[in-house]
Amino acid sequence: MTPQDQKSIGVFDSGLGGLTVLREIHRVLPRENLIYFGDTARVPYGNKSSSTIIRYSREITRFLLKQDIKAIVVACNTASSYALEAIRELTDIPVLGVIDPAVRSLASEAPPQAVAGLIATKGTIASGAYDTSLRRNGGSQQLIGQPCPLLVPLIEEGYASSQAADLILRDYLQPLAERGVEYLLLGCTHYPLIAASIRRLYPHFKLIDSAAETATTLQGLLTKANLLGNAEKPVIDLFVSDMTDSMRSLKDLFFAEKVDRFEVAQVGDDH
Amino acid sequence: MTPQDQKSIGVFDSGLGGLTVLREIHRVLPRENLIYFGDTARVPYGNKSSSTIIRYSREITRFLLKQDIKAIVVACNTASSYALEAIRELTDIPVLGVIDPAVRSLASEAPPQAVAGLIATKGTIASGAYDTSLRRNGGSQQLIGQPCPLLVPLIEEGYASSQAADLILRDYLQPLAERGVEYLLLGCTHYPLIAASIRRLYPHFKLIDSAAETATTLQGLLTKANLLGNAEKPVIDLFVSDMTDSMRSLKDLFFAEKVDRFEVAQVGDDH
Question: Where would a tag sit more exposed on chain A, N or C end, judged by fewer CB atoms within 10 A?
Fold first, then answer.
């Protein structure tokens, strides 16, 4: 058996957006080996049924478990909504989603009567997963959901800091500002890349970034379980289920650090 | 047997964008019964392999052939690039894609030395299908491809006539204007919905709309084959492989006319 401190942290997402979570984990825990799987052949998950999302998540979990990992981070809002329990049935190692860490931060930091905005994809807003998590975590804050369907394509096309993105951000965020929003949850793994524009346009919003909150929560969890790594030269391996040139550019957009491997791996029943 | 003039025209696309082609067909041929299939469960086709696109196209063709049709219009640029021959193996009725009609219009109308721009999705540009078609049709015009990945999401979100879309259109089209483009091929079924903005920003571009060209070509083809319909109250049926609220809004965006049916139908080996 490999000692715990050499084992990797497994991270997965429907695509490459979850690399913003990997980036935060690497920043907070720079001596951990990391393995990322992006299901780029089947992205996006947001418009798929819950049973399909659970099946895909279990396939990816089995792949990650073969790599000798000590924790799993589900860096995908959709899979975090539907598949955490199904993943936990497959393993005893810690499994962490991206929704609870952000929501717990809101529940503990914001006044009980505070109004918070949640920006996310249509699918995440429709799922009600953040509301459910907020109630489960004892938060009494008001949560106003705002779907922002154009932000992911704008970010992926390099338009995060553009006049066009500013105009569209105002369309999405002005109604929240007018309803007294003080806290803004970034409910999509892509959004850290547009956070600077949001801060510039709405400096009074207190941003809660689920990527950063998830990394901090993971750090606490590994510390408590005595599972912290101390790799001198941590290995970072990225796997995707499909590779194209545009995925190579997205990888650099979301995760500029050098990686040891970036290659295709197949998951699922046939493999 | 139903007489030819009662048979329907079958139209399919990976999603709902092909409804702009259906709309043009209905405008040009208002006495034809129409059946549309949108593969909304598997959209988009642009990032899938050619063998997958051929398999899906054949599944949909078999579904349409069961509905007693007299012609098939492949209202999808990706399927038009890869699957026309495979579809023709399944039937003797006329099969028409959206690429050749637009290209033939360019080849015959533009001077031999003219410079034409092609705006389309990344997948269509990368496929080289318009260049191939232009050479096959004897066109000597120069074709400059410009991928416009943000136009489909902008159109689908109702941003076709917005300041943000104008800014992004200028980014895409200004380089074409500077390279002497006179003709502009709209190489994506969504783009007729943003044509008004393009005309306003670049009034000297002569637009070639593949939806309109395809409808006119179909009209000529049916006339020549003596297959024109004369339904008093033509029936328009829309089928999709997956239905959500956002698909209902997209249907209205692309095809405002009343339809007789708009419902889910399954295609493929299991059905």
Answer: N
Number of CB atoms found within 10 A of residue B149's CB: 18
A178-182 mean pLDDT = 98
pTM of structure: 0.91
Residue found under tokens 């190489």: B187
Residues B36 and B69 in one domain: yes
Q: Which of A3-17, A91-105, B179-193 has the lowest mean pLDDT?
A: A3-17
- B74 and B32 co-located in one domain: yes
For helices A99-109 and A129-136, give the axis angle rounded to 10 degrees.
50
> B86 and B23: one domain?
yes
Q: Do B159 and A149 touch (CB under 8 A)?
A: no
Q: Examine the residue annotation and report whether A148 is marked as an active-site residue of this protein.
A: no
CATH no. for residue A239? 3.40.50.1860
Digitized pLDDT (tens) for each residue of chain B, 271 residues in all: 456 678 999 999 999 999 999 999 999 999 999 999 999 988 888 878 888 899 999 999 999 999 999 999 999 999 999 999 999 999 999 999 999 999 999 999 999 999 999 999 988 998 899 999 999 999 999 999 999 999 999 999 999 999 999 999 999 999 999 999 999 999 999 999 999 999 999 999 999 999 999 999 999 999 999 999 999 999 999 999 988 888 899 999 999 999 999 999 989 754 4
Phi, psi (5° rounding) for residue B125?
-60, -45
Chain B residues near any Cβ of chain A (below 8 Å)? 47, 122, 149-150, 153-154, 156-157, 159, 162-165, 167-168, 242, 244, 246
Q: Which residues of A touch B (CB under 8 A)?
A: 47, 122, 149-150, 153-154, 156-157, 159, 162-165, 167-168, 242, 244, 246
As for how many domains chain B has, the answer is 2
Of the partner residues A47, A164, A244, the one whose CB lies closest to the CB of residue B244: A47
| Tokens at B63, concatenated | 């579904």
Residues A86 and A109 in one domain: no
- Dihedral angle of Cα B193, B197, B200, B206, to the nearest 10 degrees: -50
Domain range for residue B123? 99-210
Mutate to test the interface with A, among B43, B45, B47 (most CBs of A within 10 A): B47
User: CA neighbours within 13 Å on the CB side: how many for A246?
Assistant: 16
Tens digits of per-residue pLDDT, B167-178?
999 999 999 999
Q: Is residue A270 part of a domain?
A: no
CA-to-CA distance for B107 and A61, rounded, in angstroms? 53
SS3 B233: coil
- Classify the C-alpha dihedral B183-B184-B186-B192 as positive or negative: negative
Residues A111 and A238 in one domain: no
- Do A104 and A206 share a domain, yes or no? yes
